[in-house]
Each structure stands twice: as C-alpha cells, then as structure tokens.
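User: quick one, fold this
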Amino acid sequence: MNLLIVNGYDKLGWSKLAKYKIQPICEFYRDQLKKINSKIKTTFIYPSMDLKSTFDDSFFHSFDGMIWTGSSLNIYDNTNEIKNQISLMKKVSKLPIKIFGSCWGMQLYTVCNGGVVSKNIKGREIGISFNISLNNKGKVHPMCKGKPVIFDAFASHIDHVTALPKKASALSDNHYSIQSLSNKNFWGTQYHPEFNFKYMGQILNARKKILLKEKLFSNNQLNNLISSFKNPSKDSYSNSLMDFKIRTNELANWLRYIKKN
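Assistant:
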C-alpha cells in the first residue's frame, strides 16, 4: 500500500515545536500507520514549507490514499502558505483519491469544499477531547466500526467546523464541536487518532507558555498532566486512550477501506 502524507505545518509553526525535539509530524504519522500495517510505503510533501513545487494529476494517481496531518495554522489567516495548501486540497478533492484528514486536514477539506471553519468561542481544546459521541450515522459508518459509542481522544485545536462541506455528514461530536465527518472520498477527525500519550505530552510541554497565558491550566495542573502522560495509568484514563487498537481504530478502518476500494 502506497500512501502520500501531506505535512500541514509551515516553517514557522513547526520551528516552535522542533526546538523541543519533537519527531517531525510526517514521520510520527508514518510510524503509527506502520504499527497498523507494516507493509505500507509513504511519501511526504510539504506544501506550506515548499511553495514552489507543483504536482500533476499522475503524481496523485500513483498513491492508494492520502493523509493530511494537523497544523498550527488557522485557515482564516489566508497567508501564502495557507493559500498553497488550499490550492492543493481543491485540486485533489476533484480526483478519485481517498483522503484522511486529522484536525487541520479536516478543516482544510471543509473550507475547500463549501464548508466553514471558525475560531471556537469556547476556546482551545487540547490534551484530551472528552466524551466524543457517535451519532446515528457514525454508528454505522465504516470509519467508526469497532469504536465505542462514547470515547475520548487526543486533541489540539482552537478552530472548528461550523458548516459541513458539500455532500458530507457529521459522524460524531462532543460539547466542544463536530469531531468527525465524511463523504465519498474523505474521512476526517477533529481529534488526532494518530497521537499517543508521549507525543501529546511533548506538544503540551512545547505550548506551555500559550496554555498558561490562555489560563486553560494552572502551572501545577499542566505540570501534573505532562508528568501523567509520561507514565499513563489505566486508572486515570479511558480504554479508548490506553488501547492502541481503539485509539487508532479510524486509521485502521481507513487502511482497510482503501485496500478494498
């Protein structure tokens, strides 16, 4: 299986994480996918870091599917880096290629296909997205097969989908926002099924200043959370986070889906 992974970060956004020696997002995503299917092959592209590269349709047709990672970008800023990703997403959205988008990937797809993404008035959702609930469509959708009806997931976002893209259906939500959606060729989650405790903890540590400034946590709370993520206990966190198969269920289902279709 040959997959294309699109890095959603720009140089500035990633540099703020790279100084904390966090594994590059594409490499981390690849490694999580390989734990599900060790035979997959991956290629990375960086449309917000490399603004000059262009790709013809034949390039995308050479892949079985496309993964779009998260990002620190906000779609409404409309910088050149964002415009380049918008152009690319609009292009591939017209092709018969299966796409999975995490967080930014779902937001980008939404805006490029007639939907709306806005800054959430409830503020940032980071660390754990609690009590995500599958709706009736989600309960029978192949992306959610084997997923608990109510579950927790790792998350890091301040924006959310406020109007669905064309011909798409919401599959889950929580008190914060729509948490997943799909249409014929796109599956997306607002949360991060690819993240684990270690990676999420590293992101919390890297963004400590902004989280304290936004008063999402006290310093003691944040330190305790980061420490807890280094050695998570089943007594503290739900099985939907502790169990790799449940946590990455959406990705495993997507891999099976593109193999069959």
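User: anything notable?
Assistant: The first strand starts at residue 2 and ends at 6.
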